[in-house]
Amino acid sequence: MTAYAYARVGYHRSLDLLRRNGWKGHGPVPWEHEPNRGFLRCLARLATTARAIGETDEWERCSTFLRDSSPAAAEELLG
Fold first, then answer.
1. How far is it, in rounded angstroms, from Cα 78 to Cα 20?
2. Is 45 within 8 Å of 10 (Cβ atoms)?
3. Which residue among 13, 24, 35, 63 has the highest number of C-beta atoms inside a 10 angstrom radius?
4. Cα–Cα distance list, 63 to 8, 20, 22 (Å)
5. 3-state secondary structure at position 67
6. What is the rounded distance in angstroms from the CA atom of residue 38 to the CA atom of residue 52?
7. What residues contact residue 50 under an 8 Å CB cut-off, 6+ apart?
8. What angle do CA 27, 40, 49 make, to 5 degrees?
């Protein structure tokens, strides 16, 4: 449960940073751009911890968001 809470905090902080840097809440977040990796890692961690605690809807939402944002990150982080 602690891992899920930390992943959620990291996700929200990273999301805020992306928005401050001009991201509009949709569209690609390239894995290849190093500053995006914190957000993408947090999103992946949120997905995997949600799956681990049985939160299937959250797993689906987060893993889909990751794949839509960066297929390369999804491949790297989710396998």
1. 27
2. yes
3. 63
4. 14, 23, 23
5. helix
6. 21
7. 4, 56, 58, 59, 62
8. 125
The per-residue pLDDT for range 10-67, each reduced to its tens digit, is 999 999 999 999 999 889 999 999 999 999 999 999 999 999 999 999 999 999 999 9
What is the model's pTM?
Answer: 0.92
Indicate the residue type of 59.
W
- Is residue 30 classed exposed, middle or buried when 0-12, 13-18 and 19+ CB atoms within 10 A define those classes? middle
Amino acid at residue number 13: R
Report DSSP state, residue 32.
T
